[in-house]
Design brief:
Helix content is 38%, strand content 17%. It is of the alpha/beta class and 295 residues long. An eight-stranded mixed sheet has the order 1-2-4-3-5-6-9-10, sandwiched between helices. A two-stranded antiparallel ribbon has the order 7-8. Helix 1 crosses helix 2. The longest helix is centred in the last third of the chain and has 15 residues, at 277-291. The radius of gyration is 18 Å and the shape is globular.
Length: 295
Amino acid sequence: MPLFERELAKVLVETNGTRLYVQQDSEAGEPVLFLHFGNACAAVWDLVIPHFVDRYRVLRLDLRGHGRSDQPPDGYAIENLARDVVGVLDALGIDQTHIVGSSMGAEVAASLAAQWPDRVRTLVLEGAFQNAFGRDSIYGEPSEALLADLRATRAARPPLVGDTPDEVLAEWLNRWGRSGDDRLARALRPAIGPTRDGRYAPIAAPILDAYMEAFWSARFDKYYQQINSPVLFLPDEASVQDPTAQASIAWFRSILRHSALVEIPGAEHAAVVLDQPERFARAVLSFHRASSMLI
């Protein structure tokens, strides 16, 4: 059944001083919450959700600063975004949930599971595979010079703006190297909005630098030390082929009590939920079945 026929509720939930857009797609069964990748919105899950609506209470939201949620000037530390999500669970009367996160959503999910381990039934992470700095990290050993270079690189990137949403969308797809990708276009279109000068841009663009500062200082290994729930890692193909990323995932798995790893052939980070939604959903559902014996 098409997803739009199954949407039950679209609401703004006020929590942690911010209104968050929350969508419920089905209401029977155990809750499962989907958290999107950065600069996007809840629509990225449109092709995955139909595989869950007949057996779960399915929820998704726009993270702070994204989509239809509020965009306050601060509060973009990963731990605070996780606190936002817990506030949504509280408002909806959900004591415990499965969580599925992609990229930024995976990072927020890992933080949530570390801070509130009893609130998470299982955790599926398409992201949070490496710390930014330190052991088996993305960038190696930290230094002020390296941070300055990373900030300068971000500042030098031309802004993604246009006179119409379609103009922005076309350039956005081009920068992804995915021009003409209808699935990605459908997912990103709701994440574009008007700017103060009457043009258009990705809604979350103004807050991403603040989030990156939080990401650079995050220590996912410390999160994993606190997580009690079973965790499924879904690495993209680039991570599978990167020895440093593989060493990091192995390190993180050694910290966890229960974990699994599934490789989806040809998976591209974040875009896998759009490119291969059936395989992605099948991996999650199989993990849920296997984990039910451990919970």
